[in-house]
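dumping this here so i dont lose it
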């Protein structure tokens, strides 16, 4: 199969990356990160979450963050919303695109959002209705698509069923999340192939955490399946607070380097992205999780 000519990267570092930081990250550092990513040419930035601050304290200042970033025309600044309350808070903060998040495994759904899969889907219906009313686009996530930290194996059919519900209720795109980074390329190809039996490939995205070092290979497997949207996190920041041991998403710099090498176009400047990742890594006191950034910065 031919590789796509162009790929859209969804930068989830400010949200998926920073949500897992135990120590508070200052508003100033978060604002600078989002502005640096904008300057690097990133077209889609997941800025924060309108979730319960008791569940994810690091995302508590998301409204303030949205009030302070410099928005550039043509760039999408999105936020997670788990329920109508979160959607309304996001709307009040001037958010134009939200993401709802469900899971393919019941145990993860309970641990992450304290309800069953079907209850979560019911909660999203009023969000979809309000979003339509306000012209807000909604992206959907399915977690644990290649395995669950509590239940182990997850079948592609289970994933397809949840993804299809999200698509049918009006999510314009569904991102399939390997939350614990456990998948391998063959399983990834099979997953996209099965889910694409229900949802067009152009409406699917891949979201790979890099816990087992398989994320780039899984993205390549996704490209071979005709997937053109991938989520990534600058400097490989992050993890999921409800998936113990899960590390950050694949580093955006590493994905971009691979895409550049494959001759696949994006809108992003690698040098500026590396600088953005290094700046936030220093600000949060972490070593830079991007192999490409480390290589370039030590050269
Ligand atoms: P709950 O405790 O069942 O909710 O939590 P509740 O309705 O009973 O409310 C409890 C309290 O939370 C109340 O406050 C509510 O007002 C408040 P209290 O009366 O106790 O003071 N509350 C809220 N506050 C702020 N914003 C809200 C909100 N809703 C209720 N939106 C709930 C249910 C969904 C709220 C909770 O479980 C939650 O916030 N979970 C978020 C978990 C999360 O953010 N996880 C990480 C993101 S998902 C992820 O990382 C995976 C992904 O990257 C893909 C992948 O990798 O697989 C997307
Ligand atoms: Mg994630």
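and the seq i came up w/
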């Amino acid at each position: 199969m031919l590789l796509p000519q162009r790929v859209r990267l969804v930068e989830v570092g400010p949200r998926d990356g920073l949500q897992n930081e135990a120590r508070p990250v200052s508003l100033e550092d978060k604002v600078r990160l989002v502005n640096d990513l904008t300057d690097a040419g990133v077209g889609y930035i997941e800025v924060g979450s309108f979730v319960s601050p008791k569940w994810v304290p690091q995302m508590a200042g998301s409204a303030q963050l949205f009030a302070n970033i410099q928005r550039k025309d043509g760039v999408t600044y999105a936020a997670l919303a788990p329920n109508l309350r979160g959607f309304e808070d996001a709307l009040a903060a001037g958010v134009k695109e939200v993401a709802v998040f469900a899971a393919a495994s019941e145990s993860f759904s309970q641990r992450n959002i304290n309800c069953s899969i079907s209850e979560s889907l019911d909660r999203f219906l009023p969000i979809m209705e309000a979003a339509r009313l306000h012209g807000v686009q909604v992206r959907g996530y399915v977690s644990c698509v290649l395995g669950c930290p509590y239940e182990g194996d997850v079948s592609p059919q289970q994933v397809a069923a949840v993804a299809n519900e999200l698509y049918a209720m009006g999510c314009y795109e569904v991102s399939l999340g390997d939350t614990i980074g456990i998948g391998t390329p063959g399983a990834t190809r099979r997953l996209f192939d099965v889910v694409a039996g229900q949802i067009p490939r152009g409406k699917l995205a891949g979201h790979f955490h890099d816990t087992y070092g398989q994320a780039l290979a899984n993205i390549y497997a996704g490209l071979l399946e005709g997937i053109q949207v991938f989520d990534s996190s600058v400097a490989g920041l992050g993890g999921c607070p409800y998936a113990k041991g899960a590390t950050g998403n694949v580093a955006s710099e590493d994905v971009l380097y691979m895409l550049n090498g494959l001759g696949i176009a994006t809108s992003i400047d690698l040098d500026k992205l590396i600088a953005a990742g290094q700046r936030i890594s220093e600000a949060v006191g972490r070593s830079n999780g991007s192999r490409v950034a480390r290589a370039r910065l030590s050269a």
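The chain is about 45% helix and 15% strand.
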